[in-house]
Amino acid sequence: QVQLQQWGAGLLKPSETLSLTCAVYGGSFSNYRWAWIRQPPGKGLEWIGEINHSTSADYNPSLKSRVSISLDTSKNQFSLNLTSVTAADTAVYYCARRLAVTTPPPLDGLDVWGQGTTVTVSS
Amino acid sequence: DIVMTQSPLSLPVSPGETALISCRSSQSLLYRNGYNYVGWYLQKAGQSPQLLIYLGSNRPSGVPDRFSGSGSGTAFTLKISRVEAEDVGVYYCMQTLQPPNTFGQGTKLEMK
Fold it and tell me: In chain A, pLDDT over 90 holds for what percent of residues?
């Protein structure tokens, strides 16, 4: 059974860079996309971006100038970097696996999630 | 961006009743392959979200058949039959037709 284990710094100062890593246990990288989602305190879910095994990434335009997602298949990990953080970036950050099968029958959806990492930005 | 609008935002139900959650998208989520790129998720208190329905009406293995999804184009519904206490939480719809993928605001299901 596939599991995602994520980690990273939980307390940042404004203007610093948020860096989180998600390790994939028990699965391969092909046929999936690897996503990051965040949830500000008491609010809903926001998609940050995702990457496929060919390292082609899509990002939320609201964050595009500050965000990058990378994949390290040798370590079975993928990572999120968000630069120049502000208090508005305070949130629980989740990594997730997205099914991405297009051949019939197609498969889709974020079927495996990490445990979440609380990131607080405060001076 | 595709806007996802859920209703109601709060849904009190009694055990054993049927709950219906609506999700509308600002543009069609029907792809050329005939599938609607919308999924439904449940987030229980203090937990990560979990996938309930994918591609509009498909249930992953392990999800009880009390959960069903329907709809096409821009209007979708999640139906929870015979609601149980363990179904309490916030339900989200999400479109994955085109980036940026977007979520609905969430519907909080609670027991009467």
Answer: 84
